[in-house]
Amino acid sequence: MSTETALTDLSAAVLARGGELRAGGTDTTARQRSGVSPGPFTDLGGVGHLRGCTPLPGGGLRIGALTTLAELATDPQVHAGWPALALAAGTAATPQIRAAGTVGGNLLQRNRCWYYRNPHFSCLQKGGTGCPARQGDHHFGVVSGDGPCVAPHPSTLAMALLIYDAEAHVHGDSPRSVADLYGNGDRLSDADHLLPPDRILTAVQLPAPLPGERAACHRAISRAHAEWPLVEATARVVLDGSTVTHAAVAAGGVARVPLRLTEVEAALIGREATPDVLAAAAETVLARCRPLPQTGYKATLFRNTVLEVLEQAALGPATAREGARRT
Known about the structure:
alpha+beta; Enolase-like, domain 1; 2 domains; globular
């Protein structure tokens, strides 16, 4: 059976049976066990052509949606051309999760709000009418945006893919930017992405890297390993001497969607990459912060994490670096 036929059949099965698609199963299995997502689940694991990293004419790279995080983190092509993506994949979750979790699953996973994950609570994400986290414990909630749901988007890979202008390829649809999988968050009160249940993400495609680009990835976490980040950020810059000629900056853990920080980029391009300029650029993220009662700390952490990746990318070694700071 061809890949195209297999994907069409899987899509039709979801439409007929309901439920969800399942890739590596690291998220769906946990939700199934808790009773939050009873299924049925339609498995994608048998579609072998959705796995692996394939170089493209012109220097780009196609990453199959069933490629595991471990495979992505250790692929020499990814390390050489898109190092911040390799670092993001290599620091997500635990080695066991990285060995099973997939690129597609990471991009389309459900949020980690404990009210959503507990079957005894009703919430917008489960078809309810309110957000118990907003009135309850939301220490890990958003600090940017004012939508009805306050759970930050959990995808580390999405954040990294934003700075590389990656495209998402969906079976039966035209390619779209990775950002378009999520929109601006306004439509995510009852979901964590905008793909209909029967649409299958098949790959992400990366354009060729820019000559001389430098990148960095940093996450602020509450313990050394295996923790969801409080805030994470990634940056990609090109310098002509000490002048920034290209900048792409993104953040995660702060909003309902992974954020491309265009205000930071605008504050950098055409300026010398001095410590003062980098600090002023990082400061611009505070204008988008709308803290909840328990997430005021994230505004400062947001700014500082962005500053960390700017300093690493612009002033550090000319290769990606990763940091994990306990808070």
